[in-house]
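Hello, quick one for you while I still have it in my head. I'm working through a protein record and want to make sense of it properly. Would you mind checking whether the tokens look sensible for this chain? I owe you a coffee for this, so here goes:
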Amino acid sequence: MLAYQKSHPDKFYYLTSRFFTYTEKGSSDENWMFLDEYKSTVEYEKWRRVAHEDSEIVALMDGFFPKWDALIVPDSRKGEVWNEVEEFRVVLR
């Protein structure tokens, strides 16, 4: 999946995609989080459309997500869309 994304940047509208893990002390459960950053809501909506209409991407996801889902605790997956409050942004470097 990552190799395809990197070799087809024209098909993916995010600026960056990052993956984070976190394990609470004393727990054996690892929490995962993806953060995909888009330039705008419009770009995000373009991606949502392409993800359902582009036959190569649909086929890629159909092969990828069943394997991924096998690693996820049932009913724990959720998707959220957050919007930045730009006046609180701090960029140091």
The first helix runs from residue 2 to 7. The chain has one domain: 2-72. Residues 2-72 form one domain. The mean pLDDT is 91.
